[in-house]
Design brief:
single chain; alpha/beta; eight-stranded parallel sheet; 9 helices
Length: 257
């Protein structure tokens, strides 16, 4: 791995799910120049834990959200508590929220209602949105166009095609690129990375899932962000330093840190 002086930003980790001491995880990431990260909530409890970690570590920030799988639990009582959390210091985004048509752990109407409620909250508090979109591209884009005008949008673990990527870029959205870009069978994603401007890309691991090569199949951690950045640099034919600097600037534009 090439050593560089600039730092990286990890825009999507689940620190509460990594089965290792969080202090060590954050320390190891820092040694790889991953000095800032956003840890993600998927329901009320994990959102509270994300905020707790953010309060403990200077470089850690929190996003609070109800994952599509958990949409059925976003009732009015939880929504009120969720809004109180969203106003706390170091909460930098609402998410992850969105639609998941692969598993359908919550019904489609339930997912859509929870998605729109969270978009509304993000608009009310002027927070960016971190979007989960799995096999729901058309509806995700439609709802964002109708409900999220003027908000900063980050499509986490982007899985759409090149046409969708172009639509997202035209709208000013950001695409989260993770370990999948390093997989041998990820030619479609690498083609998207090659074409899309670096100004629309950010780095993420989705740890503990989707570890990049050569750690595929093993637990993922924020410390692997530079491996993802190296692959992006290779695909685009640019320096690792440029990838680090531009994606970090993009992250600051989204989250304000």
């Amino acid at each position: 791995m090439v050593k560089i002086s600039t730092f990286f930003v990890e825009t999507h980790t689940h620190l509460d799910l990594i089965k290792r001491n969080v202090q060590e995880v954050v320390k190891d990431a820092g040694e790889k120049k991953v000095t800032k990260m956003v840890t993600i909530g998927i329901d009320l409890e994990s959102s509270k834990i994300a905020l707790e970690f953010a309060s403990l570590f200077e470089g850690v920030h929190a996003a609070i959200g109800f994952h599509p799988h958990e949409s059925k639990f976003l009732d009015e009582e939880n929504l009120k508590e969720f809004e109180k959390l969203a106003k706390k210091d170091k909460v930098v985004a609402v998410g992850e929220t969105g639609l998941d048509y692969y598993w359908n752990h919550s019904t489609l109407p339930c997912q859509m209602e929870a998605f729109k409620k969270q978009i509304n909250l993000a608009g009310k508090l002027n927070l960016p949105l971190i979007i989960h979109d799995r096999e729901a591209h058309q509806d995700t884009l439609k709802i964002l166009a109708e409900e999220a005008k003027g908000l900063k949008i980050l499509l986490h673990c982007f899985s759409g095609d090149l046409d969708m990527a172009r639509i997202c870029v035209d709208r000013g959205y950001y695409l989260g690129i993770g370990g999948v870009v390093t997989f041998n069978n990820a030619k479609k994603l690498r083609a998207i990375v090659k074409e899309v401007s670096l100004e629309n890309l950010v780095l993420e691991t989705d740890s503990p899932y989707l570890a990049p090569h050569p750690f595929r199949g093993k637990p993922n951690e924020p410390k692997y962000i530079p491996l993802i950045a190296e692959k992006i640099a290779e695909v685009k034919g640019i320096s690792l330093k440029e990838v680090a600097e531009r994606t970090s600037a993009n992250s600051k534009e989204i989250f304000g840190f």
